[in-house]
Amino acid sequence: MRRKIIAGNWKMNKTIPEAVTLAKEVVAATKGAQAITVICPTYVCLAPVNEAIKGSHVILGAQDVHWEEKGAFTGKVSCDMLKSAGVTYVIIGHSEQRSYFNETNETVNKKVKAVLKAGLLPIICVGETLAEREGGRTEAVVKDHVEGAYKGLSKDDALKTVIAYEPVWAIGTGKVATKEQAQEVHAFIRKKVLSALYDADTASKIQIQYGGSMKADNAAALLKQEDIDGGLIGGAALKADDFKGIVLA
């Protein structure tokens, strides 16, 4: 039985004081939640937020990482730096990283391997743009993203990962895939792609989140689908009450 996992991606929002306040509000609002609850603030807020959630059920995540352990990589942070700030989960390959900062399947794969080597847990983002969906390329794009991310990963390592299916056309647009559209792609990832890469048993154990404008009013319907194991939440994660509605769904 796969446990639901809800992760709040705060993106480039919240100063340190604001982030600490929101973190404390999330802890209080989601107390007793059955879902794994993760919040992912910016790098500068990680350590202060970790102090704010220490001892609670809420788990700290980061929004990205570099694959090298150290060196002349101005502006980047390593896995060890994230671990020292209290991080457990790391978002990798988000569509905004692909669109704005030249993220590729190759760099996603390097980051996934570095995160796993460091004992952290990757949330691997995959998904198609509107043009790709309208061109009938959803499955081809998603398959390419998954296969690229998991290249060279053992079965044991694969079981430590989470996938976030994020249709790019439904991020921050107010649009959302219907529960049937989302389920269809989640099932494709699990039963076609992951099963082919590993086996059906392994595929059945990997959590796959939905990451396209999930909100309190549509979360329950999406989360009832057979292959949807949680959500990677953007805008709705920036208000504790909104995030609570999703976590408790």
Automatic annotation (TrEMBL):
Known catalysed reaction(s)?
A: D-glyceraldehyde 3-phosphate = dihydroxyacetone phosphate
Q: Residues in the active site?
A: H94, E166
Q: Where does substrate bind?
A: N9, W10, K11, G172, S213, G234, G235
What is a GO molecular function of this protein? triose-phosphate isomerase activity
Query: Could you confirm whether the keyword Cytoplasm appears in this record?
Result: yes
Give UniProt keywords alphabetically.
Cytoplasm, Gluconeogenesis, Glycolysis, Isomerase
A Pfam cross-reference name: TIM
Name the Gene Ontology biological process terms: gluconeogenesis; glyceraldehyde-3-phosphate biosynthetic process; glycerol catabolic process; glycolytic process
Gene Ontology cellular component list:
cytosol
The main enzyme category here is isomerase
EC number(s) stated in the UniProt entry for this protein: 5.3.1.1
Q: Where in the cell is it found?
A: Cytoplasm
CDD domains given in the database record? TIM
Quaternary structure and partners: Homodimer.
What is the recorded function of this protein according to its Swiss-Prot or TrEMBL entry?
A: Involved in the gluconeogenesis. Catalyzes stereospecifically the conversion of dihydroxyacetone phosphate (DHAP) to D-glyceraldehyde-3-phosphate (G3P).
UniProt-listed HAMAP family: TIM_B (MF_00147_B)
Name the record gives this protein: Triosephosphate isomerase
Record organism: Candidatus Raymondbacteria bacterium RIFOXYD12_FULL_49_13
UniProt lineage: Bacteria, Raymondiibacteriota
